[in-house]
């Protein structure tokens, strides 16, 4: 995509509709530009951003300095001491974000311009950019049936570009094995972290939950971003169709009566995944690939901020 057309696409978003259209995202080839457009558009569009760091656990006080947000001043301490102090949170000091991106074959599916993998890559890049603004360490693990690539969490200069390169190189391959990949990540993470798992979750929810418990028991914070295509949520088929599993190549005949059976099984799968996540206090958010990503960030982070 040329520089002029990229610039025009961004301007159409900034001066047009409130939330960025995934079709615009599909037209912008630079992950760095896309993530900046999504995050800065999201932040500037909020009267008060709900994002104050991925972790909001109180750490300590420090003296107020020019440029600090006046809202961070502890007025009770001021009333007692006649001095200005602001609260420092773990998110200001040593928060560590790990992104896990599913790169199995099923993530290559799309019924429009954006595959689930592309949507997941943009989501991961946006979360990394958001953490970078907050000076948090970010790591990335891509996986399918095993770990494909791993970059440790860092804050050093140039690290964000390393993550973008890894995301840009990610290709959909192999079958899904979330549990094995999660267990491998557990051997890499020693300190408490926020772990964002981005996947279409075509695996038994109980198997996923068993692996997630490892992180939960260590005190980590977890988010499941469930990415689905609109055609997976509402199959557009009529009459008789032949469907092929992208991971196993198994073929099935889809008839009109199959729609109700499929819808019921999908709803049950999502309900089980939500329940398993809730049982171990893991956040769950389902997104279809036509959901504007800045809207997705707003919904999630606003809800998350209420917990702190």
Explain what this protein looks like in three dimensions.
44% of the residues lie in helices and 20% in strands. It is built from twelve helices and ten strands. A six-stranded mixed β-sheet has the order 5-4-3-6-7-10, with helices on both faces. α3 packs across α6 (116-133) and α6 (116-133) runs antiparallel to α7 (159-169). The radius of gyration is 21 Å and the shape is globular.
Primary descriptors:
single chain; 308 residues; two-stranded antiparallel sheet; 20% strand
Compose a concise summary of this entry.
The protein is an alpha/beta fold. It contains twelve helices and ten strands.
Please outline the helices and strands.
Blueprint (H helix, E strand, L loop, with lengths): L2 H12 L7 H6 L3 H14 L13 E6 L11 H7 L3 E5 H4 L2 E7 L13 H18 L3 E7 L3 E8 L4 H11 L8 H11 L5 E6 L5 H13 L3 E8 L1 H4 L7 E4 L6 E4 L3 H22 L3 E6 L4 H13 L3
Parallel strand pairs: 3-4, 3-6, 6-7, 7-10
Antiparallel strand pairs: 1-2, 4-5, 8-9
Helix pairs in contact: 3-6, 3-12, 6-7, 8-9
């Amino acid at each position: 995509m040329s520089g002029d057309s990229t610039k025009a696409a961004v301007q159409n978003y900034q001066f047009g509709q409130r939330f960025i259209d995934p079709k615009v995202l599909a037209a912008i080839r630079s992950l760095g530009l896309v993530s900046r457009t999504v995050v800065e558009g999201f932040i500037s569009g909020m009267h008060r951003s709900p994002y104050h760091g991925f972790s909001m656990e109180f750490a300590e006080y420090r003296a107020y300095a020019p440029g600090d947000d006046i809202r961070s001043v502890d007025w009770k301490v001021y009333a007692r001491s006649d001095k200005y102090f602001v609260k420092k949170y773990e998110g200001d000091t040593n928060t560590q974000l790990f992104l896990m991106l599913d790169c199995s074959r099923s993530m290559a599916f799309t019924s429009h311009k954006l595959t689930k993998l592309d949507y997941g890559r943009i989501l991961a890049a946006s979360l990394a950019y958001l953490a970078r603004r907050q000076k948090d360490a970010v790591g990335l693990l891509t996986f399918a049936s095993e770990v494909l690539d791993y970059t440790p969490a860092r804050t050093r200069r140039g690290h964000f570009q390393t993550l973008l390169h890894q995301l840009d190189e990610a290709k959909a391959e192999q079958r899904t094995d979330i549990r094995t990949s999660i267990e491998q990540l557990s051997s890499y993470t020693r300190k408490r972290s926020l772990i964002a798992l981005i996947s279409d979750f075509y695996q038994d929810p109980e198997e996923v939950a068993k692996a997630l418990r490892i992180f939960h028991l260590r005190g980590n914070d977890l988010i499941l971003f469930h990415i689905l295509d609109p055609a997976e949520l509402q199959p557009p088929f009529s009459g008789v169709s032949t469907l092929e599993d992208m991971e196993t190549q198994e073929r099935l005949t889809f008839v009109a009566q199959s729609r109700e059976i499929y819808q019921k099984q999908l709803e049950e799968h999502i309900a089980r995944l939500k329940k398993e996540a809730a049982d171990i206090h893991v956040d769950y958010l389902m997104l279809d690939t036509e959901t504007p990503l800045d809207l997705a960030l707003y919904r999630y982070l606003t809800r998350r901020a209420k917990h702190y």
